[in-house]
Amino acid sequence: MSISLGNEIILEDRNEQGYYNPVVQDYKDLTMGSRLLIIAPHPDDETLACAGLILQAVREGKEVRVVFITNGDGFSKAVTKNYGIRNPQPQDYLHLGYDRHQEALSAARLLGLASEDLLFLGYPDGGIMDLWEKNWDYAQPKLALNGHICSPYSFSYEGNALHCGANLVKNLIDILTEFYPTDIFYPHEDDEHQDHKATNAFVQYTLTLQGYAGREWAYIVHKYVQQMDLYHVPLTPEETKQKCSAIREYHSQWKVAEDFMSSFFYKKEYLGPKNKIYLTYGNKYHPSSFPELRIIIQTKNKIDTEKVYTLQIRCFYEKTVGRLDLLVHRGKIYTKKHAYNRWEIAASALALKIQENQVGISLPFSTIKGVKALLINGEVLSGDKILDKSTYKLVMLTKLT
Hints:
Elements: E1 2-5, E2 9-10, E3 24-25, E4 35-40, H1 45-59, E5 63-70, H2 76-83, H3 90-110, E6 118-123, H4 128-133, H5 165-179, E7 183-187, H6 194-210, E8 215-219, E9 230-234, H7 237-248, H8 251-254, H9 258-262, E10 268-273, E11 277-281, E12 289-290, E13 292-298, E14 308-316, E15 321-329, E16 332-336, E17 351-355, E18 358-364, E19 373-382, E20 385-389, E21 393-399
Parallel strand pairs: 3-9, 4-5, 4-7, 5-6, 7-8, 11-12, 11-21
Antiparallel strand pairs: 1-2, 1-13, 8-10, 9-10, 13-18, 14-15, 14-19, 15-16, 17-18, 19-20, 19-21
Helix pairs in contact: 1-7, 2-3, 3-7, 5-6
């Protein structure tokens, strides 16, 4: 599945095997500032993907902060393997969350970080995508497997932080304001893990909302994720040894996925720069100006009108964000309301065109006056089952005069 804008900007394009072809850039092209912020969906992601980077930054006297979106407490298999419990209860997931917190502290010490360099937000493991798509509002918090709708951990960045997307964004804004990072590292948009995908969306959302002007880097965790425009960070033998030791501190995960964890015992780490899409509009005489925003969902197979095709669009104004959720089913287009910041637009203002393997939706730019950026993704569903999902793409808009 891919999404394109206008007539020529392709937001996602895979090869026949379904993977991106990586292009590795020279390390000399990678430059970083003095304050690095690493955002990890779970404890261990920061070590698997960025341990060498952290070691080098600490050695060079740079400041490093690590933010954990969840405590990794929703992994049923880990509860069973570590505690011998076949049917985990909320207290068992809490037990795992506290253990993974201690593992993160131990790994960080081996990488040269202090406990105050780690921030644990405590949002639901396995539920970050729900916070992004469904449980955004404060009135609709997500119930985690640990039995709570707010963070129950004594060490959380915000005590009793409510499990909703709006509050997660608030936490990220506070951290950005407090630390003011020169470089931010977060999961690659094409990571197959749903918590990683959602973390990518939340970070892009927050950085766009805040007008962040620093450098953004995407890291790879899952070995089946390929990435374009890769930079490699070579590790010395000693750094590799230290990274391996830090990974081994995650005992709870080692018992469940030893092969996966040990696959990160390599001598390089890979990062990808964040690429934004730029789109101009507003002057019909300008050759690069588009008269309308045309979004196309393209699938490998012919469009099935019994399936549901959705678009989620976050519209960034100067100080606020609007949300537009569109649904196409049986040849008709609908708008849905999933959050308080719904962007009000009549379905009659949208043009729908379905042909072969494409669903096209057009919005006149007159309907999105004042919008400076869009964050877009699409899905294909059969009933409640998600069959395919695109990556989250950020589109910067410029109005020509």
